Structure formats: C-alpha cells, structure tokens
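Data card: per-record layout.
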Amino acid sequence: MKAVLSPLLVMEKMVEKLQQKYPLHEKKAEGIIQFHLKHQNENIDCYIKSDLDTLSFHEGIDSNPTVSVKSTFYNWLDLAGGKLNPVLGVLTGKLKFKGDTSFFKILPKKSFIDDLNIPEDPVTRFEKNPVKYWTKPTKVIVLNASPRAENGYTDFYLNPFIKGMSKKTEVELIHLSKYNINPCKGCFSCWMNVPGQCVYHESDDFNKLAEKMFEADLTVYAFPIYADSMPGILKNYFDRSVSRAYPYMIEGLQRVRHPRRYINKNHSMVVFSICGFFESINFEPIRAYFKALAHNRHTPLIGEIYRTTAVGIYGNPFAYKMMNNIVKSLEDAGEEIIDSGKFKRKTLKVINQKFKNDIKDLVKINEWWNEKKGTKDYNY
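The structure for this 380-residue chain is written out next.
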C-alpha cells in the first residue's frame, strides 16, 4: 500500500538522482551542505556529504558544515526546482544561508533527459488534415468487438458497410471474441523490464492480433454499447496496446502523449457502434473516448457511425422501410469512406435518422424481453 513520502525520503531520492550526474560533474568538491528545514511544525535536519566521487544523504546535524540553509521544506523545494530565486528568497526571509554559498555549485544542474534519446514521433500533416492528404487505403481491417461475433446485431449492420468498402479495396473482418486477450495487470513490465513485450506475450493472442492490425491503413472499430461504454474485450485490447508505445512523453497535436514503437504514418480509424436505446446521447461516452484515443494513438478519427434502436428497428415490421434505407446508406458510406476519407452528410442523415418512438414502443420492447426470459435463446 502506497503512502505519502516523508520529507526525509524526498530529500534522499533527490540526492540519489543528483548522484547519477555527479561522477561526470565538472565542479566536484569535498564538503557538507546542511539543511534545517521546517515542515508541518516538525524540524527536519539532514545534510548532503560530497567527495570527489559521491554525493550521499545523511540524517541529523554535521558538526562542521561547509554551508547551511534554513527554510521551510516547501521553500527549499521551490529553490531546488528553480521556482524561487535565491536572492529574492533571502530578501523575503524565506531562505537563510550560512557559510560558503558558492559550494552549492557541486549540485549538478544538467537536465536528466539530455541523454535519453527519446524516439521522435512528430505530428504529421495527415494527422492534422486527413481528408486533404487522403490516399485510398490498400488494406482495411474491421474489428468486430461484439462478444456475440457473427450472431450479434453489430455484425448485421456491419455487413452492408463492409460490402461498400470491399467494392473499393481489400477488407478483412476480425471477430475479437475469437482471440484470447488477458486484461492488463498494470505491471509496466512492457515499459521497464522487457520493453515492448507484455508478460502475456507467449500465453495469449494479443501480439498476434496487434501485428495483424498493424497491416491496415484504416481500422474500423465496431461494437455494441455495453454498460454505457464498449465491451470489455475491446477495452482489454486497448489497455494491452500500451506495450506498443514508449513510456516517454512528447508533445502531440493537442496535448502530451507517448511516441509509438511501430509507426504507420497514414493510419486512420472509423468508429461503428450500435445500441438499443432510442437516444443518440448514449454514444457520448464513446465519442469522448475515441477522440482521446485518436490523439494518443496518432491516428485520426475520420468517421463515426452511431445507430440507435438497432434491435428495435430490426425486429419491427413497421420500421422495415427505415431499416432498408439504413442498410442501403451503410453500403454507400462504405464506398465514401474509402474514396474520400469521410462520409457524405446526406448519407449519415439516413443512417442516423431518429426512430420516432412513443410509449407503445416501450411496451413492445418490454413484452419482447419478457417473452424471451427463460428461453435460453442467446442467438436471438
């Protein structure tokens, strides 16, 4: 169980970090820096001892320090972090020094990130404007993340969309439920122990699927809404994908993100989701998630299809015309996304058209579920 670090432990860790640079530091010397710090009505006495090889941390008071500093713990942290000017600190009474203040030069100031060789993964012009720099994808992978695979309604609505895309390019449909992917255990082994390789590397199917997914220029993530979000098997896949990024943080298009280990510069994504509710607001959590995912994966989200009342339209004879119009427009949408990297507004208008429901529709839905109860008909 993690606990708040004590000031002494913070100081010790700071000295350990400084020691990493100290052997190559140009201004090494022998001496003592004594600290008399105050934190939450507690006196903290400690010091840094230096020789020509090592900086070491010690608790207590040295009898003959080279220089000493007296302040609150927070003011010292501000000074060490460059947020407090030492002259201003003295003038305002926040800092009190005694002895040879020039001795502080033994503390290395060189940035610790200078020698990390952080991989470059800059924002591309395609990421900024995928439509302007669109080229027809040579390979599309549709990842159907419905746990019911080909027996689900996601598959039903996907089929015409895939048919449309297949007229223009190669499309491969993958049912995620047929792959065994363990949930991420948060051990960070893929970042710290064996970089790029999960502890489950040999015991499940994630790596095999990830390598296959990397072949695509365009990925379609398709799934039903489960508990106001995506099915757990898809979230497992995304969580495990952290192994295919570096732990470092770099500037992205909108905010900080991780650089990728495997780069496909013109890779883009489409979200295709259905739900049983009538209102499109039920897709808002997914919209927000994939907007963040697109940024953090360096993969622009070029299209979104969200179809409400998916089961209700399919099984309702009075919505038969509506369903057929939607199916036709889904096929059109498949062609459009390959040709231009976007959907036409009139196509989305048909796909997203609202089912005008009233209280009778709720009664019919509830009757249907009541009839199915206890039948063990899982492939309805």
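Known properties of this structure: The chain has 13 helices and twelve strands. The chain has a mean pLDDT of 93.

See the next section for split statistics.
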